[in-house]
């Protein structure tokens, strides 16, 4: 198998995962002329109705994952929580981009932190704890106020527990399932940023400018692209992200979440080798969206321009809005200039579930952000 082979339009792209990221990647792939197949445990997953073939199977189902790989010219993913046995089986039958080596690093927070330390990338004080007693010791050594995160699993703020002192270690240990955790010292934050890097098998790299992100209850609430940060911070962030993607030898996308501290330091928070919520604004802000760029990268096509042609912001729409009396007022936002509605085709609304997002553009960052907040209010959120 030629691991550097270019997959031209007309070929078949496989996606492990059929959530909203897989759906939007599939739509971009179809625009470029690719056929698309996906695998997801949910029979009503977001991508099902926009792909040519969708396998309903657990991510641990090596048999169906192998069937997918055999039918595809290249396989990628929209979620990193795929068992290594499945990833290795897929890689035996089709190029898997990003590959198992990348996923082995990022799937486990302890390994991810250790990899960052080994390669000298800046991060906050942390310790791994495999027992309740060592969790308490770690919290004490890190100053008491810490974030405790399960080494494996967790998404959109789940799998995390904040403690104010070592005395709360038993609560965190119990809440997170009595399994290995990473204990991270709480930091004095100025801002949360993310940087998206695309890297193709032939080594071509393209880096988007940092996005400025605002979270509520550890779920991304809104994001602004490009983020309004000092030029030196933007340069440092993009150089860090490029270096990490190169060191990991990523084929596809890598998003690096970062913390900008009040003292000016820039630290790495987390890595994600896939499209990312904080770069949905690329669909309206940039010449090449993150989803088209993902397809270009994994197919080994020339990467698209990452030029930002206008300021843009996005805000997430959670299932809570659908549970309100009367539901979302779609007609209100569709009448607003510069605002677009993006829904993910999910049939069941639940509290905290991402159902879609709004995007807005503006001649200035302030205008884009004001429009997106006004649009969300008009929607009924």
Automatic annotation (TrEMBL):
**A single GO cellular-component term on record:** cytosol
Q: Which UniProt keywords apply?
A: ATP-binding, Ligase, Nucleotide-binding, Purine biosynthesis
The ATP-grasp domain covers 113-299
Which top EC class is given? ligase
Coiled-coil regions listed in the entry: none
* This protein's record includes keyword Nucleotide-binding: yes
* GO MF annotations in UniProt: 5-(carboxyamino)imidazole ribonucleotide synthase activity; ATP binding; metal ion binding; phosphoribosylaminoimidazole carboxylase activity
EC number(s) recorded for this UniProt protein: 6.3.4.18
Q: Which reaction does it catalyse?
A: 5-amino-1-(5-phospho-beta-D-ribosyl)imidazole + hydrogencarbonate + ATP = 5-carboxyamino-1-(5-phospho-D-ribosyl)imidazole + ADP + phosphate + 2 H(+)
Pathway membership: Purine metabolism; IMP biosynthesis via de novo pathway; 5-amino-1-(5-phospho-D-ribosyl)imidazole-4-carboxylate from 5-amino-1-(5-phospho-D-ribosyl)imidazole (N5-CAIR route): step 1/2
- Annotated ATP binding lies at 109, 149, 154-160, 184-187, 192, 215, 269-270
Q: Name one GO biological process term.
A: 'de novo' IMP biosynthetic process
Q: State the similarity comment.
A: Belongs to the PurK/PurT family.
Function noted in UniProt:
Catalyzes the ATP-dependent conversion of 5-aminoimidazole ribonucleotide (AIR) and HCO(3)(-) to N5-carboxyaminoimidazole ribonucleotide (N5-CAIR). Catalyzes the ATP-dependent conversion of 5-aminoimidazole ribonucleotide (AIR) and HCO(3)- to N5-carboxyaminoimidazole ribonucleotide (N5-CAIR).
Q: Spell out the subunit comment.
A: Homodimer.
| Name the UniProt record assigns to this protein | N5-carboxyaminoimidazole ribonucleotide synthase
Q: What is the lineage of its organism?
A: Bacteria, Pseudomonadati, Myxococcota, Myxococcia, Myxococcales
Gene name for this UniProt entry: purK
């Amino acid at each position: 198998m030629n691991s550097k082979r270019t997959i031209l339009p007309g070929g078949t792209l496989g996606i492990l995962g059929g959530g909203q990221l897989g759906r939007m990647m599939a739509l971009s792939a179809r625009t470029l002329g690719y056929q698309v197949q996906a695998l997801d445990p949910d029979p009503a997953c977001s991508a099902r109705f926009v792909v040519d073939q969708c396998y309903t199977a657990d991510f641990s189902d090596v048999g169906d994952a192998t069937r997918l790989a055999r039918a595809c010219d290249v396989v990628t993913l929209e979620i990193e929580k795929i068992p290594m046995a499945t990833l290795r089986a897929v890689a035996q039958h089709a190029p898997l981009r990003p590959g198992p080596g990348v996923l082995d690093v990022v799937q486990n927070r302890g390994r991810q932190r250790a990899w960052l330390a080994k390669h000298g990338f800046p991060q906050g004080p942390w310790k791994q704890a495999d027992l309740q007693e060592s969790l308490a010791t770690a919290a004490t050594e890190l100053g008491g106020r810490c974030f405790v995160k399960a080494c494996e699993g967790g998404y959109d703020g789940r799998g995390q527990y904040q403690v104010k002192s070592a005395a709360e270690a038993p609560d965190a240990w119990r809440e997170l399932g009595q399994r290995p955790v990473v204990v991270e010292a709480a930091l004095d934050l100025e801002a949360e940023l993310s940087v998206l890097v695309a890297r193709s098998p032939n080594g071509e790299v393209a880096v988007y400018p940092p996005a400025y992100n605002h979270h509520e209850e550890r779920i991304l609430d809104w994001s602004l692209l490009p983020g309004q940060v000092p030029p030196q911070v933007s340069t440092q962030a993009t150089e860090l992200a490029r270096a990490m993607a190169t060191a990991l030898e990523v084929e596809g996308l890598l998003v690096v979440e970062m913390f900008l501290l009040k003292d000016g330091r820039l630290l790495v928070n987390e890595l994600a080798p896939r499209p990312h919520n904080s770069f949905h604004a690329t669909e309206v802000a940039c010449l090449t969206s993150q989803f088209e760029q993902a397809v270009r990268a994994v197919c080994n096509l020339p990467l698209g321009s990452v030029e930002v042609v206008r300021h843009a912001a996005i805000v997430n729409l959670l299932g809570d809005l659908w549970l309100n009396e009367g539901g979302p007022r779609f007609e209100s936002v569709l009448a607003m200039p510069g605002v677009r509605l993006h829904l993910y085709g999910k049939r069941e609304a639940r509290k905290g579930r991402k159902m879609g997002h709004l995007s807005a553009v503006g001649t200035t960052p302030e205008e884009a952000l004001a429009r997106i907040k006004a649009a969300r209010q008009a929607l009924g959120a």
